[in-house]
Amino acid sequence: MYTILDIETTGGKFNEEGITEIAIYKFDGHTVVDQFISLVNPEKEIQPFVVKLTGINNKMLQNAPKFYEIAKRILEITKDATLVAHNTSFDYRILRTEFDRLGYDFTRNTLCTVELSKKLILDQPSYSLGKLIKALGIPMTDRHRASGDALATVQLFKLLLEKDVTKTIIQDSVKYHDKRVEKERLQKLIASVPKELGLFYIHGADGKVIYLGRGKDIKFEVNKLFLKETKRAVKVQDRATSISYEKTGNDLFTRLKYYIELEALAPKYNFQKEKKPFLQDFNSEDFIIFDKGRALEERAVILIENKEVFGYGYTNLAFQENNIEILKTLLTPIEDKELAKAIIKNYLNKNNVQKIVRLEK
User: Fold this and answer.
1) What is the DSSP-derived secondary structure letter of residue 217?
2) pLDDT tens digit string along 213-224?
3) For position 254, what pLDDT does the model report?
């Protein structure tokens, strides 16, 4: 849901302007479902150039309601909706300033049709509302009056919604000031993952993995990420549309799969560490590492052949483990053998696994 608005003011010093007229149209993406239009008594003089521009003068506003008298209606019509305007930073600032004078913290998520037009309607000589509307052939009346400008913005926004064929540009352009909607979205994502050891993959709007994480408790790690306020974490939070996960069963597999997949996926918001060559060999040429699987009847397996990491996987039958050819078909081969060797060797130097079986040639 969107609330498309336009505000006319008295002009004057920054943050000292008063509202003279406001128009708000509640828009569900298809039609206008509610509206509020009113002159407003700003309780201060209107700058002469503004009178000339808008045609609104002090005499017209003598009997108009003061802002505190319409504040409740503004709260009602904008509740749970994204605020849309042509140059939203201005209209949103004016509203926040007026509510601040009443001692109320007014917060809404916002979208700017100037910014969207520059992304979706390219190569225009001007992106001012009047010139853009004229160039697009959109009819407009009462220019520089709140209702006329807001209705023109409604028509412009309809066009922008149609032009956003991937349905990502508008979503990515929302500025989240009201954190309630954002928190609900993130809480649903957190609820979708378990308290299990393993990896989690945060996907963007196109399904691509934008962040790869790991931990002994996936839910805890996702929650921790969504509470961070660093620039990188906030970008992940804003762009996250879904989360998938993979249980690993043990710390070695968690570490191995994390670094291998970090190389393969190259998620946009992970730190990419430069890979260093690993020169130390394994002590034995051929052996199998066994560790805890994802369930009681399962074991995690890594096969080392000719002092190189062949692959990794899971088994739950003894004959699979005892027949090397069958085992090889079950395992996932590893391409970056130097990276895998470094991870496994480093882990074995500091930690125990369930069992290591050396193979006889």
Assistant:
1) S
2) 999 999 999 999
3) 96
Per-position DSSP letters for 168-204, written without gaps between them: -HHHHH-B---HHHHHHHHHHHHHTS-S-SEEEEEE-
* Nearest partner of 135 among 148, 146, 122, judged by Cα: 122
Question: 360: Cβ–Cβ under 8 A, 6 or more apart, which residues?
Answer: none
Q: 142 by DSSP, 3-state: which?
A: coil
CATH architecture of 179-265: 3-Layer(aba) Sandwich (3.40)
> What tokens were used for 163?
């032009």
Pairing of strands 2-9, 19-27: antiparallel
CA 266, CA 110: separation in Å to the nearest integer? 31
Mean pLDDT of 199-220: 93
* Residue with token string 């904008």: 78
pLDDT tens track for 133-183: 888 888 888 888 999 999 999 999 988 988 887 777 787 788 777 667 777
pLDDT at residue 104 tops 90: yes
CATH class of the domain whose range is 2-173: alpha beta
Q: Which residue has the tokens 């150039």?
A: 49
3-state class (DSSP) for residue 52? helix
CA max distance for the chain: 101
Tell the residue number behind the tokens 């998520």, with chain if given.
109
Name the nearest CA neighbour of 50 among 1, 110, 7, 8.
Answer: 8
Burial annotation 52-85 (CB, 10 A radius, 16+ → b, else e):
eebebeeebbeebeebeebbeebeebbeebbbbb
CB 96 within 8 A of CB 106: yes
CA distance 155 to 122: 18
CB 23 within 8 A of CB 48: no
| Mean pLDDT score, 78-98 | 93
- Report how far residue 300's alpha carbon sits from residue 347's, in angstroms, rounded to the nearest whole number: 15
Catalogue the E-assigned strands of the chain. 2-9, 19-27, 32-39, 82-85, 110-112, 198-203, 209-215, 242-247, 287-292, 299-305, 308-315, 332-333, 355-358
* Every domain of the chain and the residues it spans: 2-173, 179-265, 287-358
